[in-house]
Write a structure and sequence with these properties.
Elements (H helix, E strand, L loop, with lengths): L1 E3 L7 H13 L6 E4 L6 H4 L5 E4 L10 H23 L5 E4 L4 H5 L7 E6 L9 H5 L2 H9 L3 E4 L2 H11 L5 E3 L6 H8 L15 E6 L8 H13 L4 E6 L8 H12 L4 E5 L5 H4 L4 E4 L8 H8 L4 E4 L4 H5 L6 E3 L3 H13 L2 H13 L5 H9 L4
Parallel strand pairs: 1-2, 1-4, 2-3, 4-5, 5-6, 6-7, 8-9, 8-11, 9-10, 11-12, 12-13
Helix pairs in contact: 9-10, 9-14
Length: 373
């Protein structure tokens, strides 16, 4: 089995990839492939999993001779890599992400080839720039055995935006319930978990990028602070080295004098923070089917989510959680409502515990494994 992604570690897609590898590494010979070489693979994945990159590890710059050697080495490496890939020695290929990974490795051959789509094309069709049009993207999708959509809405929007490639299918991401509950028991020692009487705690989890709508959340929190509401927001998420979004967020927080928001940074175990939330809050402007929202549901934390793809499949028509528009005003109104109506917390805590029944790890991963038979 060859599993392809652009990153080894990062967000929800990388978490899904790690869960797959943990479940399958004793049953399949697994090779992980990324476009650029990344260090510390051995610290993130089991020892029996092989790692490859289509470009060599970063070389050291220096004299003209060293640069020439690096250039020759890269050319030889790329030639050997292409030769290995064309051998067709894999039985199953799983491409974990749409866009560049799906396109760049679509030439690889195997009896079974599947690719995932996690993005809502109606709100963020970023892959248009990758392919330069909808028809080339549809043709690449058709070259795979199947295109796996993480929600029903993702499947609908692909058809609406680029047309039906004829091989779309929906498979929900597995959520390892027992692992989440186990990790949630780890003690929190770096943040004060006590809360003042009457203060509401919101927790949000996600990398500090545009998609997560943290700029909207900061503006909404500023408005609520001006009105005298007592609350705090923990944002658990790391900075992205390829983006300046985190600096923009830090400057906004300082400029507006916002005191209610705490950026906790990236954490390997976000669940131990999530369990202390009165409400799990997602301010995303677009999602596929938020994995971390489902993980919060496993923990029995009431959900306050912006209306993105997959949310209605988890919450119904606000039956199992609260939804809000992905805007400053929408987030402000959503947070204000749950703080004004304290009885909503207990109501939705009970409801989300009921909804947790649909999140079956065994059923979801079995539905994916059936594709390999």
């Amino acid at each position: 089995m060859l599993i392809i992604n652009d990153l080894l570690d990062g967000g929800g897609v990388e978490k899904l990839m790690q869960d797959f590898i943990r479940a399958w590494h004793t049953r399949y010979e697994i090779t992980v492939l990324t476009e650029n070489y990344q260090e510390n693979f051995e610290h993130m994945y089991p020892a029996d999993v092989r790692y490859m990159a289509s470009t060599p590890e970063k070389t050291i710059s220096g004299s003209p001779i060293r640069k020439c050697i690096n250039k020759v080495y890269k050319r030889v490496y790329t030639g050997r890599f292409d030769a290995q890939m064309k051998e067709g020695r894999f039985d199953i290929i799983l491409c974990m992400k749409e866009g560049w990974p799906m396109k760049n490795f679509s030439y690889l051959k195997a009896p079974l080839r599947y690719a995932w789509v996690h993005t809502d094309y109606s709100n963020y069709h970023y892959t248009y720039g990758v392919y330069g049009g909808t028809e080339p993207e549809k043709r690449v999708m058709q070259s795979y055995t199947g295109i796996i959509c993480v929600s029903k809405q993702i499947e609908r929007e692909i058809r609406n935006v680029i047309g039906d490639p004829g091989n779309l299918m929906v498979r929900y991401n597995p959520v390892d319930v027992s692992d989440i509950l186990y990790k949630a028991e780890e003690p929190v020692v770096d943040v004060n978990t006590s809360v003042m009487p009457g203060r509401v705690r919101f927790v949000s989890v996600g990398r500090l990028n545009y998609q997560k709508g943290y700029d909207l959340l900061l503006e909404a929190c500023h408005m609520l602070e001006l009105e005298g509401y007592s609350f705090e927001v923990w944002i658990v998420g790391g900075e992205e080295t390829w983006s300046d979004e985190h600096n923009r967020l830090y400057r906004t927080k300082k400029r507006l004098g916002i005191e209610s928001v705490k950026f906790l940074g990236g954490r390997k175990n976000p669940y131990k923070y999530m369990k202390y939330a009165d409400w799990f809050l997602s301010s995303s402007v677009f999602e596929g089917y938020s994995l971390v929202s489902q993980e919060a549901a496993v923990l029995g934390v009431p959900l306050l989510l912006t209306r993105c793809s997959g949310v209605d499949e988890l919450l119904g028509d606000d039956e199992y959680g609260m939804t809000m528009e992905p805007s400053v005003l929408g987030i402000y109104q959503g947070m204000k409502k749950v703080m004004d109506c304290s009885e909503l917390h207990e109501k939705y805590r009970e409801r989300i515990l009921e909804r947790r029944k649909i999140i079956s790890y065994e059923e979801r991963i079995s539905a994916i494994e059936e594709l390999f038979e």
